[in-house]
Amino acid sequence: MERGCKVTTQNRNDNTMKFKELHKTAFAKLLSDLVQCDGIVNQGEIDFLQKVYGLFNITLTSRKKATRLSLSEAVNMLKSLGNAEKIAILRVFQRLALSDDSLDPTESLLLTALLLSIGIELPETQGLTANFVSIPNLDFDTRNAVLYVEPTFSRKANACIKRDYDAICALLRQSQREFFYLPRVVSNLKSKEATFRDTLSYIEPTLTDEQISHIDKTLPKLDSVFLSKEVFLNYLNANGLKISKPAFFLKIGNMKPGSYQDFLIIETGDDPLKTLQRFVQLNANILTINPPFSSEKEERFFEELTLNTESTPKDELDYTGFHKIIIDILLKYNGSHEVSRLFINTRGDIFLTDRNNAEVKMPALCKALYIFFLFHEDGLSLNYLNDHKEELYRIYRHISTYGDDTLLHTAIDNLTDFIGSTMNANLSRIRKAFRDILGDEANIYLIKGEKGGRKTIHLDRSLVVFEDRKAFE
Q1: The whole model's pTM is what?
Q2: Most buried pick, 63, 178, 214, 270, via CB within 10 A?
Q3: H or E element: which one contains 135?
């Protein structure tokens, strides 16, 4: 039996709740992220988790598997549960949120997002339809923005938003969020064209005058349908999630910044403002939802999740992200190889196996270029990349989150034809990604060579492990 996972007699005999192994793994993922979302893990939360793992027989094996899941994957696994099991999860989340004697706004939002997205049937959730998605490798951070997204132009929804725009903005600002409605944004930029151009010249110094003029020319043609498809819907549709109605996208605080951006998608219904008002009300009252127990046995089961106060205080520690940094530093050189092995999974994610399995995070196009050079061990001149467009495209197509082939081909064309600063920018991002983790040790992993000459990665290929190399070929 694994430590911290003792199964009680009551748990073994209780037939009111049925959790398969995959549900326990997904449950463990959600519990872990909810504990960490306010940035601090304290003793009360640890004590609570220990009880939950024991009562639900969530083993260490399940918890290890959970670390490989995204939040959206975990949510999708829990959707197959019965409503009684989903309500049990809600009760656990409510108790966990208060196990540190406070409810952080980030915890409240994540709890509400999970409640809606796993599909719990309650009076408080009727009329609200939502999905939880984790979108990897975006080159921007929407932070506290709430985005309006639509698969096709909805005259009614847009008319309602224009009518209630100020009320929607005021409602969202109560929770320190800003409404991003593209027609308003574009209109605002056009009215401040000179200021916008001046800002671009400082914030994006690599842009040429020709590129800025192109932005000025095409900006008025930009609409919410185009933005929706380019940023979100191409990726979601490619992964089997169809967004058929206008919706609000709310950014959820990331547990692992840079790996995924997590969003709650709330369908707007016939009245966008009313939808948001219902969501805000649910979020404010998330801890007061109290569905009746289905049996006395279930009620006794949850009584065990009440923490006992101890007369003798423990040596308590608030575990934060800074402690995680300290541990990563201590383990950085604790590998079995002086030069770390490189592991590339089927999604193109790159990990330093012997540096605490640290992920080398970079955009998809950078990954495609890097994997391409891993394949070409003898290296080649950048001037000849144009001859390898199809190979680069196949790699990029495999790992990119975009489903638009035209955009993918354009990105590879820009890279291999040296349009703008695309090549230098991508090589720079690759260097930064490795040096952020390895410092001066990064040199052996970089794409290097004389100017105009052959470029190569000098890493011994026996240290490179692909989960499935054929997936990229």
Answers
A1: 0.64
A2: 63
A3: strand 130-136
